Amino acid sequence: MTAALALESVTLTYPDGDRTLTALDAVSLAVAPGELVAVAGPSGSGKSSLLAVAATLLRPDSGRVVVAGRDTAGLPERERTRLRREQIGIVFQQANLLPSLTAVEQLLAVEHLRGGNVRAARARAEELLESVGLDAAKRRRRPHQLSGGERQRVNIARALCTGPSVLLVDEPTSALDHERGEQVTALLSEVTRRHGTATVLVTHDRALLGRADRVLTMTDGHLSTP
Ligand code: ADP
Ligand code: MG
């Protein structure tokens, strides 16, 4: 099957005083639609950098990043932004929800930015939130009225709004206890199947890797099979 996300020999450096720090060292990774790949590794090993490059938020020094069949390197910034909005769902560690909006409105805000039909967007938002396990009452709550696990569910539903082919998830359970973390990981596995996303989950918590189709390890910018 064609990969929905492919990184080919990607190298990324950051300036570090008068030297450079190699955060990603010739990293290659291909993820198929409907596949959940977990990347484990200690803090500072390059996991978030990997996601930032895959999300086209950072341009690598060298190598290719192919999203939904398009090589992103040569794309002008506007095209990259559009590809990112349409094809990539991003879930960060902190839910980054807007404090004044209800769960449904968090998703509608995304639709609004895209200029979509409001009524269709509302129906889809309700459906997505339902599918991540939030009942009608919870869908009307604001972030401070939801638990950490529920906020991450909203976050995941929001990332799925645009029907992305790639889902990138950075340490989604770090603010949760083990059981809630396990539930969020199970949800990610289910979402990956149902929506057919090519999902990359990065975590330093090896206890959460059981649901993944494949587990890779990041060590000092090198990605390897354990
Ligand atoms: P992880 O997510 O696995 O903790 P990161 O990708 O955040 O790892 O970081 C990898 C390495 O790159 C670390 O040594 C980190 O200090 C460094 N780094 C990350 N972001 C930046 C940045 N914006 N500027 C300089 N160095 C960075
Ligand atoms: Mg990180």
TrEMBL record:
The keyword ATP-binding applies. InterPro entries: AAA+_ATPase, ABC_transporter-like_ATP-bd, ABC_transporter-like_CS, ABC_transpr_LolD-like, MacB-like_ATP-bd, P-loop_NTPase. CDD domains: ABC_MJ0796_LolCDE_FtsE. It comes from the Bacteria. Keywords: ATP-binding, Nucleotide-binding, Transport. Residues 5-226 form the ABC transporter domain. This is ABC transporter ATP-binding protein. It comes from Streptomyces morookaense. The lineage of its organism: Bacteria, Bacillati, Actinomycetota, Actinomycetes, Kitasatosporales.
